[in-house]
Write a structure and sequence with these properties.
Layout lengths: L1 H23 L7 H17 L22 E4 L9 E2 L2 H14 L7 E7 L2 E8 L2 E7 L5 E4 L1 H4 L13 H4 L4 H4 L10 E8 L2 H13 L8 H9 L4 H6 L3 E9 L2 E2 L4 H10 L8 E4 L2 H14 L7 E8 L2 H7 L9 E5 L4 E13 L5 E12 L2 E7 L3 H7 L6 E7 L3 E7 L41 H12 L11 H7 L3 E2 L17 E2 L16 H5 L5 H15 L4 H7 L7 H11 L2 H6 L2 H5 L6 H12 L1 H12 L23 E5 L7 H10 L3 E3 L8 E4 L5 H8 L3 E3 L1 H8 L4
Parallel strand pairs: 2-12, 20-21, 20-22, 22-23
Antiparallel strand pairs: 1-6, 3-10, 3-11, 4-5, 4-7, 7-8, 8-9, 11-12, 13-14, 13-16, 14-15, 16-17, 18-19
Helix pairs in contact: 1-2, 18-19
Amino acid sequence: MSNFAEEIAELRRQIDDHDYRYYVLNAPIVADVEYDALLRRLRELEAQHPDLITPDSPTQRVSGQPASGFAEYVHKRPMLSLDNSYSIDDLRDWAKRCEKLAEGRNFDYVAELKIDGLSISLIYENGLLTNGVTRGDGVRGEAVTQNVRTIRSIPLRLKENTKQDNPQSSLFADEEVAGPLPEVEVRGEVYLPHESFQQMNREREQQGLPTYANPRNAASGTMRQLDSNIVASRKLDIFCYQLFFDGDEAFPTHQQSMQWMEHAGFKVNPHRRVCKTIDELVAFCNEWETKRDALNYETDGIVIKVNQTRIREEIGTTSKSPRWAIAYKFPARQISTKLVDVIYQVGRTGAITPVAVFEPVLLAGTTVSRASLHNADEIKRLGVMLGDYVFIEKSGEIIPQVIKVITERRTGEEKEIVFPTECPECQTDLIRPEGEAVTRCPNPVCPAKVRERILYFASRRAMRIEGLGEALVQQLTSPRIQRDTKGEALFDQIGQEMTLSPLIQDVADLYQLKDKRDELIALERMGEKSADNLLAQIETSKQAGLARLLHGLDIRHVGERTAQVLANHFSSIEKLEAASVEELSNVYEIGSVMAIAIREWFDNERNQKLLARLKEAGILMQVTRVGTEATIPRLFEGKQFVLTGTLPTMKRDEAKTFIEARGGRVNSSVSKKTDFVVAGEEAGSKLERAQELAIKILDEAALLEFGQATN
């Protein structure tokens, strides 16, 4: 047993060290397969010897069963909120107040990025994580410990070598505290990195679920999930910013506390600066106002604190906020306007999305007049009514969203928003499955769903049928009024206009339009030239290839990358159709959830008929490689690339094709999983991010040489 205990202890030590290097330092020293082997061995040993399992074991980060609720926790020291300043003048005034309250004593400031997430308190007893608590009302929070434990950058145990790494620490150096460690409290901000946020929303969109409006809301909603397995899957992260020993400030300066937390295994934000003067603070704020969009997380300002603990005590606090700290908020990306209407859009999966229509306003450089309200629950949460004045903001300076109702401006004439019970397109009774936030139209031939599926099929990343936009698809899928030779509408015996069936009712009908050229020409704003151009585009799309076809068919969970993986592996639609769930699951990058969804799509009778008609139309449904392409070695198999800047001779699509033909994957953003960044002229923040993460940089010549190494 002792040998097993020693091996388990050594495995835990190694895994903890690798977690720290990967999630905190961004500097792994082993490959994923080696890490997985260590974790697998630890699980095996703990299964054989359950009496040796400890709460701080890496295997215990995720619980097996959802929690029934969260217990209340009273903070030993209140988690106060910060006062905000919205201008440099406000910041200078705050600094003058601090100088006055310090009564001439010398001090400096620490400025650090304000992370847009949710505050968490981490409690360690005898070096072990025992509680993770939300801020709550500042006095009482909720114990979300099991969810906190899933965040890989949070240590379950303080690093054992903290004393050696940080000998100046009074916590470990004083003789009188040579016994048990005091209670250590570390406070931080839990956030969702952009790449995790985008991945979560992509998955929710594929599942027909409403997407989150911004990373902050997503992080907050995730932390309150009762099932820690869901929390673990969303890859939250944290930056720590405050340290207490037994409820008291730990060190003479804030900067020393930050350094101790780094030594103890916590992740602290590297973008901070000790500033001697207010002018240095102003320079730091101005610098990050322009640089913040290059980060992989949201920051909405700078937190500025007096560095010296004793000076903080003299400056003091109010009942709500410390006087020795302030948050400088970057210029607003938020404005108020009046909600005048709510319209309801039907997506290709049938999801009903309410869209707020408001009086147009200029926000972050563009005029906006609409924003998604996501679903009925979001309308209820906001408490918004027609005629309300609301605050809107842009998430990431791109997507406008309603964030708050200005109830003080209500006049009594506002009207309740009534969510529809029938589809606004086909009048089918809407359904809302139990446990889901999305309301759907179940009608498979709902005109709106048909339109959206056709647009998706024709999109640039799918079959790439240029000229097939929303207005034209609307005409093609709508019933047509019958007209005489003079173009006059025809009426039946009771005076109603006589109509013909739509020109197309699904994507396969696109390939029959060549037989309806005259009817196509007769559509509004078409004419012979436009009609012939469209027909030529449709004909060309037949050769788009298997990957683009699979993407365009809108199979659940199958996006552009997955479609490419399936095409490369199976080479033809016939082989893919015949694949079992097990065979699909064994394909690199295809998991069991995807495999089941793919199998269900091909087993559906309606889809089978659609596929047969597409085959009959002559759509290319296999991967064809000619010449040297057929023998291109898969040198980049399993490698992830990011392209940035302008390459000397290759266009972006050409470089992407070159990489994918060799088995590589091209992503849009740089992360710890990126293997290579291919950089050209005017490479921006992606190159900087790659350099921060020590990712290998290639120029075009190096990429070509690498990709042709064995040719």
